[in-house]
Amino acid sequence: MDRTDKIGNARQEALKALAEQVARAYREACCGFHVSAGLIQGNTLIAITAVFDGTGTECWVPLELGQEPWTAERRRLLEAQATLVLDARLRADRVAAAQVEAHMQEVFNAAR
User: Fold this and answer.
1) Integer distance in angstroms from the first to the last C-alpha of the chain?
2) Mind listing the pLDDT tens digit for each residue in 47-104?
3) pLDDT grade, residue 6 (50/70/90)?
């Protein structure tokens, strides 16, 4: 990743990477998903995970635990932030897809 592509701190970068994975999986699965966060690798890393309901497809990113203690509130906050980012990304993808579909329909209509 080019340094100019970075959008912020490690948490923001992890959520950006997760959003990219989820967007790709959503295009294939087109179903709902749920987000979770939990400790992995001997409680040294956080895994933020999105699992698609219909297919079981799993997308995840690691995030350093850092100095902040792991609590239920921190888990809830990470899950809420991830859900917010993922919903926004998928909403943008749906808008873009609708625009492409409308444009292609115009092209098809002109070709008749």
Assistant:
1) 44
2) 999 998 888 889 999 999 999 999 999 999 999 999 999 999 989 988 988 898 898 8
3) low
